[in-house]
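Hi all, a correction to my earlier message: I attached the wrong file for Probable GTP-binding protein EngB. Here's the right sequence:
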Amino acid sequence: MADFFERYKKIKSTNIKKKKIEKPKVVVAGRSNVGKSTFVRHMTGKNVRMGKRPGVTLKINEYDMGSYILVDMPGFGFMHGVDKKVQEKIKDEIVHYIEGKRDEIATAIQIIDAGSFIEIVERWDKRGEIPIDIEMFDFLNELELNPILVVNKMDKIKKPQWDEHLNKILGTLGYKPPWNQWEFVVPAILKEKEGLDEIKYKIMERVNGFKSQKIV
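and the right structure:
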């Protein structure tokens, strides 16, 4: 799993056929059950299917937001009741979509679970492997998509420990503390819409910048 994205990391934009871009895309990615569906529901007002079990979203969904297209990717990682071959196929579809559409993508939003992220990283580290969450974030940066990292479910962390916890998360991604020096990080409690306005602001910054460079 650690080399899941390896074959895509060095792809150059010259390999992609240029085409007219009418609206940029904003991709939403993340491990299953981190709050992607909650985020998409708040953003679109649509009754996005949600569930307590990981892996509810199994296909790519696109929503026209007016100035951009919001793309809800299936969750990666553990999916309850989903065959492993199907899980691998979903992972391939995520990568192929992002790689194939990257000239149309203004930014990507990766949502992680504040409560479980460190535990997952440590568990994978003991096996000598890199978690797919970190691989994904590296992948998005390799493609220069200027990703927004949404650290969701911060209500699982005691408020006085937020800074320490966020510093630790950023450390696993290779960024030095303090966490708040990094513009791309948004602590959030999406079920309560906390952090949502900041995410929207960062999306529009990136969408407007993308349009000024790539859309005539």
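Sorry for the mix-up. The CA atoms of residues 40 and 46 lie 8 Å apart.
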